[in-house]
Amino acid sequence: MSLDEIDKKILQKLQNDSKITNKKLSSELNLSVTAIFERIKRLERNRVISRYVALVKPAEVDRSFMVFCQIKLVQHSKNYVIKFEEEIIQLHEVLECYHVSGEYDYILKILVKDMEAYREFLLNKLTNLNHIGSTQSTFIISPVKSTTAIDLL
Amino acid sequence: MSLDEIDKKILQKLQNDSKITNKKLSSELNLSVTAIFERIKRLERNRVISRYVALVKPAEVDRSFMVFCQIKLVQHSKNYVIKFEEEIIQLHEVLECYHVSGEYDYILKILVKDMEAYREFLLNKLTNLNHIGSTQSTFIISPVKSTTAIDLL
DNA sequence: ACTCATTCTGAAAAATATTCTAATTACAAT
DNA sequence: ATTGTAATTAGAATATTTTTCAGAATGAGT
């Protein structure tokens, strides 16, 4: 789907604050409320906007420990890969998982309460999965930047 | 701030779809609209909910290339670290940046159009920063899971 | 039992989202 | 240039939702 400059400005603003009203958007972009409304609906219909979400502060819900975990599989046959990915998706501690290039096969972003909870996760969940070869954990000392907004301007 | 089960259910739902109406929430949780309204306002006031955002599909806005880039600094004096982090924050291609444990100092999640754009980014922006020792890039072959929602139940 | 603070309900008011009709614009084909 | 067609827009109406308000229920501490 093709996006003009107005679409991009709308997306830019919605990515930063999806609670902004159509009225405010319309005055900032010098368009009618209806024009804004129709454009947003079109962006939603075409799945340019995939969803609207509330972002929760991890520390406020007792999830202050973030880890990047790299994983190697023992085999790479299609069945193993499919099975592994299905199982990973089920784990709620895993916020993100990517199949990647390089020495390891996967990178996972994991969020838990603390180091102890991570140990539990590793022992009881992750290393219990079949086909896992080795893992390597990288702990987050401090977040420097964290955004979901893609720059479009 | 302390959260009861109702708060957690509200957060759970808002993390998945922040456009859900208070009326719908109220019927699903068997509370009045006002009760829901007040609870959400409290969650916002106390920054449990940090913001509401629209999520945009990267491919739809021509950003199909994601990379994890690990960085080592040449020195770790406070001034260097501060300066480096300030500069990283400015780069719109960098969606996330974490100070981490292990062999490298930082992990960055970078989103660009394609490999060529990534090369441009590396040459013109990243390696132009002072104090950078070495970098190592890991390319995303395929996303397996990607969510912003923290499981609270 | 009484007070205080918190959370709740239901109704009213204010603001916003959505629908509708018509006018305008953009653009391709002639 | 001009016609026709579709897409986009504006403005008014209607429908929904958010927000405010007053009063009732709840619970902890005295």
Automatic annotation (TrEMBL), chains A, B:
Keywords: DNA-binding, Transcription, Transcription regulation. GO terms for biological process: response to amino acid. Coiled coil: none annotated. One of its GO terms (molecular function) is sequence-specific DNA binding. GO terms for cellular component: cytosol. Pfam families: AsnC_trans_reg (PF01037), HTH_AsnC-type (PF13404). PANTHER family: LEUCINE-RESPONSIVE REGULATORY PROTEIN, TRANSCRIPTIONAL REGULATOR AZLB. This is AsnC family transcriptional regulator. It comes from Gillisia mitskevichiae.
